[in-house]
Amino acid sequence: MARGQQKLQSQAKAAEKLSKLKKQQGHSATDQKKAAQKALVHVCAICKAQMPDPKTYKQHFENKHPKNELPEDLKNI
């Protein structure tokens, strides 16, 4: 049975091997965050919140900023 330093080295080697396999798969958390950030294209003019589509943006604007006038690009949606 491995003890002490030998055990730590074995665990480190296994963790490194596992991380390399995950990177090869391309499903890392940073990749997912980058893809999600690209989908958020509409930005609220008042609070700078980001939304994926104009319909969600319009709902956000009507609910969070009812006293403000609706922007021109949202009036026809």
UniProtKB/TrEMBL annotation:
Pfam families: SERF-like_N (PF04419). Residues 1-35, 57-77 are annotated as: Disordered. Keywords: Cytoplasm, Nucleus. GO terms for cellular component: cytoplasm; nucleus. It is found in: Cytoplasm; Nucleus. It comes from the Eukaryota. Its main location: cytoplasm. InterPro entries: MBS1/2-like, SERF-like_N, ZNF706/At2g23090_sf. SUPFAM superfamilies: Expressed protein At2g23090/F21P24.15. Residues 1-40 form the Small EDRK-rich factor-like N-terminal domain. PANTHER family: GEO09665P1-RELATED, ZINC FINGER PROTEIN 706. This is Small EDRK-rich factor-like N-terminal domain-containing protein. It comes from Euphydryas editha (Edith's checkerspot).
